[in-house]
Amino acid sequence: MDNPLLDLIATGYAMQFQEKGATHEGVLWASEEDQKKRFQMLLAPVERDFSGQDISINDLGCGYGAFFHFIKNHPAFEQGTFYGYDICADFIKAAQTKIHDPRAQFHHSNTALFEADYSFASGTFNLIGPQPIEDWTLYVKACLREFFKKTKKAMCFNLLDPETSMKEEWLFYADPDDFLTFCQKSLSPKTTISMNPELKGFTICVKR
To answer: Which long-range contacts (CB under 8 A, 24 or more apart) does 74-78 make?
Structure first.
């Protein structure tokens, strides 16, 4: 992975992880409950479509593997395959060290390397750093285009809502209408959005 735009962000995550470890705080989530609620929202649009016991999953921005722990006991994933990717090498090393499930593999990458039935990205694009919002928005959309190319059935991702009353520095607050329109026009007309004011964000699901 060689992308100067991401170097500072990866460093920031590494510093946080070294201080907080493999916890929700280590990946900049407010609480473990919020982390799990976002996972539930990501699954909600596609879970009813799961069939069999061998679905494959891409997780972009996998951190230390929290989403794998969340889904590993799901009936549809009994014989599944999980591909986790992250820009922070420390996250990947921790996941590889602590997770020995043969269904899971983790890669230091800012893009998906393998095709999967379902692709997820939770909080992946929230930390923006000092770069202009316009530049980060273009980068996120470019990432989503590439991520969707590796997706066979559906891609779900979440972003922070700019309508939240309290905004934090260095976080990316995306325009829901802009991203919904982008996905519908550039990726698939079968795109839906779910707003969640409680979690100060929204989830978009793009289906084939």
So the answer is: 74/50, 76/47, 76/50, 76/51, 76/52, 77/53, 77/103, 78/53, 78/54
pLDDT in tens, 109-167: 999 999 999 999 999 999 887 788 999 999 999 999 999 999 999 999 999 998 876 77
Please tell me the pTM assigned to this model: 0.90
Q: Which phi-psi region, left, alpha or beta, contains residue 129 (left: φ > 0; alpha: ψ -120 to 50)?
A: left
Q: Chain centroid to CA 134: how far?
A: 20
Q: Which fold has domain 4-207?
A: Rossmann fold (3.40.50)
φ, ψ for residue 123, nearest 5 deg = 75, 5
More confident residue, 84 or 10: 84
How many angstroms separate the CA atoms of 31 and 29, rounded?
6
CA separation for the pair 110, 86 (Å, rounded): 6
